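User: I'll paste a sequence; please echo it back and then give the predicted structure.

Assistant: Echoing your sequence first, then the prediction.
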Amino acid sequence: MRPADHSRAYERLDEILAREEYQDFVSPWATLGEILEKISHWFSGLGLPVQIAVLAVLVVILSAILFHFVVVFRRALRSGPSGEDQPRDQPGRVGDLAGWEALARQARSCLEAGDRAGALRLFYLAAVSRLREIGRIPRSTALTGREILARTRPPLQGLDEATWIFERCVYGGSPPADDEVGAVQTLCERIS
């Protein structure tokens, strides 16, 4: 087989690009190159002290812009879904939940309404919130139940059982028995 001769295709391409409608096309890179060339020519005409001063001003401006973006990015990381800052060290807070007392009240309301799973979850969260408030565990809301167990100082009797019940019922989907809800409620009341 003979290799293909592409010379005719290139001639045809040259004919097409030579048409009038393609003559007004200016590449954006060419325009940018012209602008940079003019800036370079202007900058080289300045004296050395002026060049240093202009560069220093540009560095300060670029640093301020970078600092602004870092501040905005950090604020976005700290803000909740609504865009407003969430308190980090406010006592009695677990993420977006209310304080431990309000959680315990909500748990009792769930228990009265017959929602044992909701009551168990809220009693456990109330206990964890109270432990954070009194400084027995770190304030991080990203800890798992097992991490909470490992970091509770000094170890708290009944927390291991309550954590196991919480994980099995809330994450495992097992319906909690009355005595299991009672065990977590007792732990919550003992901590408070």
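The two ends are 90 Å apart (CA to CA). Residues 82-97 have pLDDT under 50 and may be disordered.
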